[in-house]
Design brief:
By secondary structure, this protein is an alpha/beta fold. It has 3 domains: 86 residues, Ubiquitin-like (UB roll) (Roll); 96 residues, Translation factors (Elongation Factor Tu (Ef-tu), domain 3, Beta Barrel), CATH 2.40.30.10; 120 residues, Nucleotide-binding domain of ferredoxin-NADP reductase (FNR) module (Rossmann fold, 3-Layer(aba) Sandwich). The chain has 6 helices and 19 strands. The strands form 4 sheets. It has a 6-stranded antiparallel β-sheet. The chain has a 6-stranded parallel β-sheet with strand order 17-16-15-14-18-19, with helices on both faces.
Length: 322
C-alpha cells in the first residue's frame, strides 16, 4: 500500500506501522510531537482511503472526526491513502541519533526546576533545529523527552527539567545526578521550529515550555533578526521566572504573566493566551508558537481560532505526561 500527499509525495505504508512512522522511516517528516495521540500536532485530513486506529486519537474533537481528520501517529493504512500532510523540507538533513552524553553541569534554578548541561564526545555533534527535543535514556531504560534550550551553535546541550511528583526520573535528577554521570540521548525529534517568516512572531509559553522558545530566540539573536517578536511567558509564582530574556539586538517585547493573584506582583495576571488577546486586536499578521502544558496549548488554539487566527499559523509543542 502507498501513501500520497497533495504535493505528490509518495511512500510505502509499512504494515502495522503508523502513517507518521512510515513517513519518518522513508526519510520524510510531517508535523508531530508527542506521538501518542494526546497533543494533536500531527492532525491531517484523510482525503482518500481507509485507516485502522493503532492508538486512541485522544486529541480529535467531534468536529475533527466529522471533517475526516486523523492523527498520523495513531493510524495505519488499511488501503492506499491520500492525505493533506505537508512534508517539512527543513528536516531533510536532520538525522536522529543515539549518542552518549555526560552531565557537564547541574544548576538548581528553583525548588522544582534544574538546568542541566550535557556534553557530547569531542568528535560528535548533534545537528538539530532550534525548538526540537531529545529523549534522555536512563541506565534502567526509562526514557523521557526534554526540549533543548540552546542554539545549535553551542558545544553543549542545555535542558530545563521540572520536578514531577513520583516521577521515575525526578528522583535521579534532583537527588542523585552528579557531574560527569554518563547518559544516553536520542534525537533530535519533533517539528517545533521556526518556519519561513513574513509575519510578526508571537511566542506563548508556560513553565519549562520556555526551553524551546529560548533556543529559537538564541538563534534569532545570533542571526540578527529584524522582525517584531513578542514573548508571553506564564508561571504560577514570581520565583518561577527562573530565566530572563536578554537580547539587545532583537525587537523583542516580553510580558511575564502570573496565573494567579499575588500582592507582590505588579505585572500581568491571567493566562498567557488571554493576556495576549487582550493586548492585541489584530491577528492577521502573526505566527503563533506555543509551548507548555497540553491544557494551555488546547485553550490557546481554541481562543485564537475564535479570534480569527488562521490555523496554519499556529505551531505548538505540548508537554504531555509519559
Amino acid at each position: 500500500m502507498k501513501i500520497k500527499n497533495l504535493e505528490n509525495l509518495q511512500f510505502k505504508a509499512e504494515k502495522g506501522q503508523s502513517i507518521l512512522d512510515s513517513a519518518l522511516s522513508s526519510g520524510h517528516a510531517f508535523e508531530y510531537s508527542c506521538k501518542n495521540g494526546q497533543c494533536g500536532v500531527c492532525k491531517t485530513t484523510l482525503l482518500e482511503g481507509k485507516v485502522t486506529e493503532l492508538l486512541p486519537q485522544t486529541a480529535l474533537t467531534e468536529m475533527d472526526k466529522q471533517q475526516n481528520k486523523i492523527l498520523s501517529c495513531c493510524c495505519t493504512a488499511k488501503t492506499d491513502l491520500l492525505i493533506d500532510a505537508e512534508d517539512l523540507s527543513a528536516l531533510k538533513n536532520i538525522e536522529v541519533k543515539t549518542l552518549p552524553a555526560r552531565i557537564n553541569k547541574i544548576e538548581k534554578k528553583t525548588a522544582h526546576i534544574i538546568e542541566l548541561e550535557l556534553r557530547l564526545p569531542p568528535t560528535t555533534k548533534l545537528n538539530f533545529l532550534e525548538g526540537q527535543y531529545i529523549d534522555i535514556i536512563a541506565s534502567n531504560g526509562i526514557r523521557r523527552s526534554y526540549s533543548i534550550a540552546n542554539s545549535a551553535n553551542k558545544q553543549v546541550i542545555t535542558l530545563f527539567i521540572k520536578k514531577v511528583n513520583q516521577g521515575k526520573l525526578s528522583e535521579y535528577w534532583f537527588h542523585q545526578a552528579k557531574e560527569n554521570d554518563l547518559l544516553r540521548l536520542e534525537g533530535p525529534k519533533g517539528t517545533f521550529f521556526l518556519r519561513e517568516n513574513k509575519k510578526q512572531i508571537v511566542f506563548l509559553a508556560t513553565g519549562t515550555g520556555i526551553a524551546p522558545i529560548k533556543s529559537i530566540l538564541d538563534k534569532l539573536s545570533e542571526t540578527g533578526a529584524t522582525f517584531d517578536i513578542s514573548l508571553y511567558w506564564g508561571n504560577r509564582e514570581p520565583e518561577d521566572f527562573f530565566w530572563q530574556p536578554d537580547y539587545a539586538n532583537l525587537n523583542l517585547t516580553y510580558k511575564p504573566v502570573l496565573s494567579k493573584q499575588n500582592k507582590a506582583w505588579a505585572g500581568e495576571i491571567g493566562y498567557v493566551q488571554n493576556v495576549f488577546v487582550n493586548n492585541n486586536n489584530r491577528l492577521d499578521n502573526i505566527q503563533i508558537y506555543a509551548c507548555g502544558s497540553l491544557e494551555m496549548i488546547s485553550s490557546s488554539q481554541n481562543v485564537l481560532m475564535e479570534q480569527g487566527l488562521d490555523e496554519k499559523y499556529f505551531y505548538s509543542e505540548a508537554f504531555v505526561s509519559s
